[in-house]
Amino acid sequence: MGSGIVLSLSAPLRLAAGEASDPVEIATSCSDRKMSLRVIAFGADGSRNAAPPRIRLQVDTGPPVEATEYPAAQPITDAQNQVAGSAAWMRRDAGVYGVQVALDRPGGTWRIQIENDGADTRAFQIVSLGGAEVRDDDGWPSIDVYCGCHPCACTRHEGDSERECRHCEHACEPA
């Protein structure tokens, strides 16, 4: 990923136990064949939380569908029950979950929803790792960015090969 491409990032979603976020819009181009996202989970104190949330995806006015853990991919259908893509998530690091969406029908309005199925309040952030743009409530691209240079998806990585980053606790150079 070390291309230096600026990618979009949602505002932190702070969710009580059992609470689901409002759907967050993700814009894709008509030529995209896949969408790569990361969901980062934080505990109430800001530490990385290893428990995965429930991750739901929706296309257009179709039903929200819960993504399944890799390698099983869950089909995502539109309102006419036509498959628009399929999604799976996988653990990437402590509290970091990769979400891969294969787009059978590029374009359309995609949304992602996070549910905190843990016992405590947690925060989540959605990071786009490709051409897809995470959108704010007003429909504009999110102004927070992730540089795409660190495998842990840390948005403010300050570590290097000799000292740990105070945000993600990784000692690494950009990937």
Structural description of this entry:
- The chain is globular, with a radius of gyration of 16 Å.
- It is built from no helices and 14 strands.
- It has strands spanning 7-8, 13-15, 24-27, 34-42, 54-59, 65-66, 68-69, 74-77, 83-93, 96-103, 109-115, 122-128, 133-134, 145-146.
- Strands 2, 4, 7, 8, 9, 10 and 12 form a seven-stranded mixed sheet that branches. Strands 6-5-11-3-13 form a five-stranded antiparallel sheet, with no helix packed on it. A two-stranded antiparallel sheet has the order 1-14.
- Helices cover 0% and strands 39% of the residues.
- The termini are close together.
- A hairpin with a 2-residue loop joins strand 9 and strand 10 (96-103).
- Residues 1-6 and 138-153 have low confidence and may be disordered.
- With 175 residues, it is an all-beta fold.
